[in-house]
Amino acid sequence: MPFTERAYFPAGAAAAGAGTFPAFQFRGRHEGPDWRRLSAVDVGRVWREGDVAALQEHLEHVTFCSAERERCPHCQGPADPLLLKLLRLAQLCTEYLLHSQEYLSAQLGGLEEALRAAQAQRDRLAEEVAQRAQEVKGLKEECRRRKKMISTQQMMLEARASYHQVRGEELAARPPVSCGSESH
Ligand SMILES: [Zn+2]
């Protein structure tokens, strides 16, 4: 994870190819500011109304323009270097945050994909569990049926055994009967 203590450190060009996400590198800035578009923006109104749609509209142009060659419209002197520095840093901050946003979106997309796969697997497993539970139910019924059959057979065997025992005792108790032969 390139996130440490809530700060994001993007993989540089040295680590390129390690992941599927492109390496981070600040873009070059060649186009001058679009003064006509800028003069049409009422920054105070954007601020008051929280007009993020207007920000989105100017995000690209403001972040990736270069004001290095701009001159003072009054004396044609170079722009205030400290103000230029402030603008450049703000542009780099925005570019970095845009990259973090893209990185997090990609991460989120991957995680959503994994979640969908896990949910599909869970559904498959739930179906399998239901099917197996049905099988268990069937086997339990079969088991009960057989137990009943076995106990019935056992009762029959016991009844036969006691019948034979009684018969045997009766036979043993009977006085000896001669076979009727005259030779005795
Ligand atoms: Zn000036």
TrEMBL record:
The keyword Cytoplasm does not apply. Keywords: Coiled coil. One of its GO terms (molecular function) is zinc ion binding. Residues 108-142 form a coiled coil. InterPro entries: DZIP1_N, DZIP_RILPL. One of its GO terms (cellular component) is cytoplasm. GO terms for biological process: cilium assembly. This is Zinc finger protein DZIP1-like. The gene is LOC107306764.
